[in-house]
Amino acid sequence: MEEDVQKNTKPNAGSDGVKQNVQKDAKGLLESLKKFLIELFDFREDTDHEATLEAIKADISFKGATAWILIFAVFVASIGLNADSTAVVIGAMLISPLMGPILGLGASFALNDIITFKKSLTNLGVMIGLSLFASFLFFYFFPLSKDTSELLGRVSPDIRDVLIAFFGGLALMVARTKKGTIASVIFGVAIATALMPPLCTAGYGLAVGNFSYFFGAMYLFYY
Protein backbone atom coordinates (compact mmCIF):
# COMPACT_ATOMS: atom_id res chain seq x y z
CA MET A 1 0.00 0.00 0.00
CA GLU A 2 2.76 2.44 0.91
CA GLU A 3 4.59 1.59 -2.30
CA ASP A 4 1.44 2.44 -4.28
CA VAL A 5 1.17 5.81 -2.53
CA GLN A 6 4.80 6.62 -3.24
CA LYS A 7 4.35 5.67 -6.91
CA ASN A 8 1.34 7.97 -7.15
CA THR A 9 3.06 10.95 -5.46
CA LYS A 10 6.38 10.83 -7.28
CA PRO A 11 5.01 11.82 -10.70
CA ASN A 12 3.05 14.69 -9.12
CA ALA A 13 6.16 15.99 -7.41
CA GLY A 14 8.03 15.78 -10.67
CA SER A 15 5.35 17.64 -12.63
CA ASP A 16 5.27 20.38 -9.96
CA GLY A 17 9.00 20.82 -10.36
CA VAL A 18 8.65 21.10 -14.12
CA LYS A 19 5.92 23.71 -13.74
CA GLN A 20 8.07 25.74 -11.37
CA ASN A 21 10.99 25.60 -13.78
CA VAL A 22 8.76 26.69 -16.66
CA GLN A 23 7.40 29.57 -14.58
CA LYS A 24 10.92 30.64 -13.62
CA ASP A 25 12.03 30.52 -17.26
CA ALA A 26 8.97 32.49 -18.38
CA LYS A 27 9.52 35.08 -15.65
CA GLY A 28 13.16 35.39 -16.55
CA LEU A 29 12.27 35.79 -20.22
CA LEU A 30 9.75 38.54 -19.42
CA GLU A 31 12.26 40.36 -17.23
CA SER A 32 14.87 40.15 -19.98
CA LEU A 33 12.38 41.42 -22.56
CA LYS A 34 11.31 44.25 -20.27
CA LYS A 35 14.92 45.26 -19.67
CA PHE A 36 15.64 45.14 -23.41
CA LEU A 37 12.65 47.34 -24.26
CA ILE A 38 13.54 49.87 -21.57
CA GLU A 39 17.11 50.12 -22.84
CA LEU A 40 15.82 50.36 -26.41
CA PHE A 41 13.29 53.18 -25.94
CA ASP A 42 14.50 55.08 -22.86
CA PHE A 43 16.35 58.22 -24.03
CA ARG A 44 16.42 60.16 -20.76
CA GLU A 45 20.12 59.54 -20.16
CA ASP A 46 20.92 60.81 -23.65
CA THR A 47 19.36 64.25 -23.14
CA ASP A 48 20.76 67.59 -22.02
CA HIS A 49 17.95 69.60 -20.43
CA GLU A 50 19.80 72.88 -19.92
CA ALA A 51 21.50 72.91 -23.32
CA THR A 52 18.21 72.12 -25.05
CA LEU A 53 16.39 75.03 -23.39
CA GLU A 54 19.25 77.41 -24.15
CA ALA A 55 19.24 76.38 -27.81
CA ILE A 56 15.46 76.75 -28.10
CA LYS A 57 15.48 80.19 -26.47
CA ALA A 58 18.33 81.31 -28.74
CA ASP A 59 16.25 80.45 -31.83
CA ILE A 60 13.22 82.44 -30.68
CA SER A 61 14.75 85.83 -31.37
CA PHE A 62 13.55 87.54 -34.56
CA LYS A 63 15.61 90.51 -35.64
CA GLY A 64 18.46 91.46 -37.94
CA ALA A 65 19.71 88.48 -39.94
CA THR A 66 16.74 86.27 -39.02
CA ALA A 67 14.29 88.79 -40.50
CA TRP A 68 16.17 88.88 -43.79
CA ILE A 69 16.48 85.10 -43.90
CA LEU A 70 12.71 84.84 -43.46
CA ILE A 71 12.06 87.32 -46.30
CA PHE A 72 14.43 85.46 -48.62
CA ALA A 73 12.76 82.16 -47.70
CA VAL A 74 9.37 83.68 -48.57
CA PHE A 75 10.61 84.78 -51.98
CA VAL A 76 12.20 81.38 -52.66
CA ALA A 77 8.98 79.57 -51.70
CA SER A 78 6.88 81.98 -53.78
CA ILE A 79 9.08 81.45 -56.82
CA GLY A 80 8.81 77.69 -56.28
CA LEU A 81 5.03 77.91 -56.17
CA ASN A 82 5.02 80.15 -59.24
CA ALA A 83 7.31 77.82 -61.19
CA ASP A 84 5.62 74.66 -59.82
CA SER A 85 9.04 73.44 -58.64
CA THR A 86 9.05 70.95 -55.76
CA ALA A 87 12.82 71.26 -55.29
CA VAL A 88 12.64 75.04 -54.84
CA VAL A 89 9.73 74.77 -52.39
CA ILE A 90 11.69 72.22 -50.34
CA GLY A 91 14.68 74.58 -50.31
CA ALA A 92 12.49 77.34 -48.88
CA MET A 93 11.34 75.02 -46.10
CA LEU A 94 14.95 74.43 -45.08
CA ILE A 95 15.83 78.13 -45.18
CA SER A 96 12.84 79.29 -43.15
CA PRO A 97 13.47 80.16 -39.47
CA LEU A 98 9.79 79.74 -38.51
CA MET A 99 10.49 76.62 -36.47
CA GLY A 100 12.33 78.63 -33.76
CA PRO A 101 9.40 80.45 -32.10
CA ILE A 102 7.12 77.43 -32.59
CA LEU A 103 9.52 75.30 -30.55
CA GLY A 104 9.69 78.12 -28.04
CA LEU A 105 5.91 78.06 -27.69
CA GLY A 106 5.88 74.33 -27.06
CA ALA A 107 8.73 74.36 -24.56
CA SER A 108 7.41 77.37 -22.62
CA PHE A 109 3.91 75.90 -22.49
CA ALA A 110 5.25 72.61 -21.15
CA LEU A 111 7.42 74.36 -18.54
CA ASN A 112 4.87 77.07 -17.67
CA ASP A 113 7.40 79.76 -18.66
CA ILE A 114 5.16 82.79 -19.25
CA ILE A 115 7.96 85.15 -20.31
CA THR A 116 9.30 82.80 -22.98
CA PHE A 117 5.75 82.00 -24.10
CA LYS A 118 4.92 85.68 -24.67
CA LYS A 119 8.20 86.27 -26.49
CA SER A 120 7.67 83.22 -28.71
CA LEU A 121 4.07 84.14 -29.47
CA THR A 122 5.00 87.74 -30.32
CA ASN A 123 7.87 86.73 -32.60
CA LEU A 124 5.78 84.08 -34.33
CA GLY A 125 3.02 86.61 -34.95
CA VAL A 126 5.51 89.08 -36.45
CA MET A 127 7.01 86.32 -38.61
CA ILE A 128 3.60 85.29 -39.91
CA GLY A 129 2.65 88.89 -40.67
CA LEU A 130 5.93 89.60 -42.47
CA SER A 131 5.67 86.36 -44.45
CA LEU A 132 2.14 87.16 -45.59
CA PHE A 133 3.12 90.70 -46.55
CA ALA A 134 6.21 89.61 -48.50
CA SER A 135 4.35 86.86 -50.36
CA PHE A 136 1.47 89.25 -51.06
CA LEU A 137 3.88 91.72 -52.65
CA PHE A 138 5.55 89.00 -54.72
CA PHE A 139 2.33 87.59 -56.15
CA TYR A 140 0.84 91.07 -56.63
CA PHE A 141 3.68 91.98 -58.98
CA PHE A 142 4.34 88.47 -60.33
CA PRO A 143 0.93 86.76 -60.48
CA LEU A 144 0.56 83.13 -61.51
CA SER A 145 -0.48 82.40 -65.08
CA LYS A 146 -2.38 79.40 -63.67
CA ASP A 147 -2.84 77.69 -60.35
CA THR A 148 0.04 75.22 -60.06
CA SER A 149 -0.09 71.79 -58.42
CA GLU A 150 2.31 72.97 -55.71
CA LEU A 151 -0.08 75.77 -54.80
CA LEU A 152 -3.26 73.69 -55.02
CA GLY A 153 -1.72 71.11 -52.70
CA ARG A 154 -1.72 73.72 -49.89
CA VAL A 155 -5.35 74.85 -49.99
CA SER A 156 -7.19 71.63 -49.07
CA PRO A 157 -5.75 70.20 -45.82
CA ASP A 158 -7.03 66.91 -44.40
CA ILE A 159 -6.36 64.56 -41.48
CA ARG A 160 -3.11 63.36 -43.04
CA ASP A 161 -1.61 66.81 -42.63
CA VAL A 162 -2.52 66.73 -38.94
CA LEU A 163 -0.87 63.32 -38.52
CA ILE A 164 2.27 64.52 -40.31
CA ALA A 165 2.49 67.52 -38.01
CA PHE A 166 1.88 65.38 -34.92
CA PHE A 167 4.47 62.69 -35.60
CA GLY A 168 6.90 65.20 -37.05
CA GLY A 169 6.63 67.23 -33.84
CA LEU A 170 7.36 64.14 -31.74
CA ALA A 171 10.42 63.35 -33.85
CA LEU A 172 11.63 66.94 -33.53
CA MET A 173 11.11 66.88 -29.76
CA VAL A 174 13.28 63.77 -29.36
CA ALA A 175 15.97 65.01 -31.77
CA ARG A 176 16.12 68.47 -30.16
CA THR A 177 16.61 67.09 -26.65
CA LYS A 178 19.29 64.59 -27.66
CA LYS A 179 22.90 65.36 -26.81
CA GLY A 180 24.48 66.35 -30.08
CA THR A 181 21.27 67.33 -31.85
CA ILE A 182 20.46 65.25 -34.94
CA ALA A 183 20.46 67.89 -37.67
CA SER A 184 19.11 65.56 -40.36
CA VAL A 185 15.97 64.93 -38.29
CA ILE A 186 15.39 68.67 -37.84
CA PHE A 187 15.78 69.23 -41.58
CA GLY A 188 13.44 66.34 -42.28
CA VAL A 189 10.78 67.70 -39.96
CA ALA A 190 11.10 71.14 -41.58
CA ILE A 191 10.40 69.52 -44.97
CA ALA A 192 7.60 67.27 -43.71
CA THR A 193 5.70 69.97 -41.83
CA ALA A 194 6.20 72.51 -44.66
CA LEU A 195 5.49 75.75 -42.80
CA MET A 196 6.56 78.27 -45.42
CA PRO A 197 4.58 77.16 -48.52
CA PRO A 198 1.14 77.51 -46.84
CA LEU A 199 1.97 81.06 -45.76
CA CYS A 200 3.04 81.96 -49.29
CA THR A 201 -0.12 80.35 -50.66
CA ALA A 202 -2.13 82.45 -48.22
CA GLY A 203 -0.29 85.54 -49.48
CA TYR A 204 -1.19 84.53 -53.02
CA GLY A 205 -4.84 84.22 -51.98
CA LEU A 206 -4.73 87.77 -50.62
CA ALA A 207 -3.01 89.09 -53.73
CA VAL A 208 -5.63 87.69 -56.12
CA GLY A 209 -8.58 88.15 -53.77
CA ASN A 210 -9.24 84.41 -53.44
CA PHE A 211 -10.14 84.04 -49.78
CA SER A 212 -10.91 80.34 -50.03
CA TYR A 213 -7.22 79.85 -50.88
CA PHE A 214 -6.23 82.16 -48.05
CA PHE A 215 -8.29 80.44 -45.36
CA GLY A 216 -7.44 76.94 -46.63
CA ALA A 217 -3.71 77.68 -46.58
CA MET A 218 -3.86 79.34 -43.16
CA TYR A 219 -5.81 76.36 -41.83
CA LEU A 220 -3.04 74.07 -43.11
CA PHE A 221 -0.36 76.28 -41.55
CA TYR A 222 -2.21 76.30 -38.23
CA TYR A 223 -2.24 72.51 -38.12
The assigned structural class equals: mainly alpha
Strand content: under 5%
Rg for CA atoms: 28 Å
Helical residue percent? over 70%
Q: What is the first-to-last residue Cα distance?
A: 82 Å
Query: Which geometry do the CA atoms define?
Result: elongated
Output mean pLDDT. 79
Order of helices and strands: HHHHHHHHHHH
Can you count the beta strands? 0
Biggest beta sheet summary: none
Runs with pLDDT <50, length 5+?
none
- Supply the number of helical segments: 11
For the record, the count of structural domains works out to 2
Quick summary of this structure?
The protein has 223 residues and is mostly helical. It contains eleven helices and no strands.
What does this molecule look like?
- By secondary structure, this protein is mostly helical.
- The protein folds into two domains: 1-41; 50-222, no CATH class.
- Helix 6 (114-141) packs across helix 10.
- It contains eleven helices and no strands.
